[in-house]
Automatic annotation (TrEMBL):
UniProt source species: Chloebia gouldiae (Gouldian finch)
Main location: endoplasmic reticulum
Membrane topology, from the record: Multi-pass membrane protein
Protein's name in the database: Protein ARV
Family named by the database record: Belongs to the ARV1 family.
Keyword Lipid metabolism carried by entry: yes
Keywords on record: Endoplasmic reticulum, Lipid metabolism, Lipid transport, Membrane, Transmembrane, Transmembrane helix, Transport
Stored InterPro entries: Arv1
Transmembrane segments: 118-139, 151-174, 181-201, 207-227
Biological function: Mediator of sterol homeostasis involved in sterol uptake, trafficking and distribution into membranes.
GO cellular component terms, A-Z: cortical endoplasmic reticulum; endoplasmic reticulum membrane; Golgi apparatus
Protein's GO biological process: intracellular sterol transport; regulation of plasma membrane sterol distribution; sphingolipid metabolic process; sterol metabolic process
Pfam families in UniProt: Arv1 (PF04161)
Protein localization: Endoplasmic reticulum membrane
Amino acid sequence: MAALAAYRCIECNEEATELYRDYQRGVLRISICKSCQKPVDKYIEYDPVIILINAVLCKAQAYRHILFNTKINIHGKLCIFCLLCEAYLRWLQLQDSSQNTDPDDLIRYAKEWDFYRMFGIASLEQTSFFIGIFITLWWMTPEMLKRKSDFILLLKALLLSTYGKLLLIPAVIWEHDYTPLCLAFIKVFVLISNSQAIRVTLNLNRILPWFAIFSGLILENGVVCLFQKMGWDV
């Protein structure tokens, strides 16, 4: 039997003490939500591929399953990996705009430093984006973010919802086979995933998450403008 914990019903978002009950001899029964009278989490019987497809389709039930009823601990690694991909793409674009082909060690060192700089810029942009979201949500719905655990849960949800940036991997592999349209599509998809993660985590309507994301984008673009005024290529 599943350990007693604060699970969530994927249909109505009410808390549940267990996902299923084990009657031994291989007999399992999915728990029924006391609020909506539906299975607490039907996804525990689904193949991970089906769950991933539903998450890509931004279904709230799939997000609740992943965020509340599973023990996924790849938030930090996923974030760093996505930032590395983004930094590498920016670094490639910077190298394409440079006509210097001198193989001198100093030039190679400078190019390597450019990659680290792009990684730092991408990290600061994402951090400012998240800060903008947190400030807006804390201002609009302070009752939803009373405890430190609420902030941590929302941060994990936002980090996981950036999984759409993994679509940058083909661009990294085939280098120049990407287009601005493809990158714009990835950006929009990540924003939609962020919105759904906020909505599911805090149980909000559809409008407020987008307002928070818009505020985050404003702060992120402000950081970009600051870097550009400093003469840095971003």
